[in-house]
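sorry for the late reply, my laptop died twice this morning and i had to redo everyting from scratch. anyway the thing you sent over, i finally got around to it. pasting the sequence first so we're on the same page, its 247 residues, then the predicted structure underneath. double check i copied it right bc i was rushing
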Amino acid sequence: MTQIERWMYRAWSEDEEAAELYFRQESEHREGLIAAMREARVSALSVFGGGGHWFLYAETEQDGGAGEPSGIFESQSSGSAPGRFEDEAFEPELLLPGADSVLSAWPGETRSRSFVPMADIFHYQRPADGEHWRRTGQTESYGRIARLKPDKVSSYVFYHYQYQEEKPGDGDKYGIIGLNENLLFFYAERPSTVEPAPYEGTLTTRNTPQDWAAVMQPHFVEWPDRQENEKIWLNLKRAFDIRMPEA
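ok and here's the structure:
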């Protein structure tokens, strides 16, 4: 049985134009990137940017409990986080080896990093297996970002975990929110795929607020000088979106 794992990463560039040019060139000359994705069993790869911020979303495949990890994964000495292949961490730098020339290095580890992982704090559905996650129609990816007030991060995570586990399948099947520091990245696809989740949530309560937007609004730091529809969730520009053909 094929397992699907989802990954979100954040990056930063002091020179936004140089980074945009790099990712555009990767998109235009994607043969090498597709070959690397195929070898690493990366089935989907998207990059979005805006204001110097860059975000990467990826999906990887692995046969359940079998085989050696691809070189795209780095062995970890400590146990892996829930929802990750055991003792493995996805390395975007191995798919995009030239990114370090346009992205700033992140401190915190002995190895050089251009991308840092974002925690999955909310998803409408989680992949049950490869067949469940198969896309049955043509969709396009999009990304948005928002900023949380530092003292509201725990509240935001609490409400979203409650919503996720009380009402699985309530929105776009592929919609997911990542968090790094107080920055949120929302990945989704359009048109939305809304269907029942093939599993029950972990909560049997029914406490998700009915007035969701009103409860969420105080959590955010608004973006200045933006139109009303982008004061909270700012639209990102998609640099590229590559999906491997499904068998």
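Residues 223 and 230 are 7 Å apart (CA to CA).
thats about all i looked at so far, will dig more tmrw
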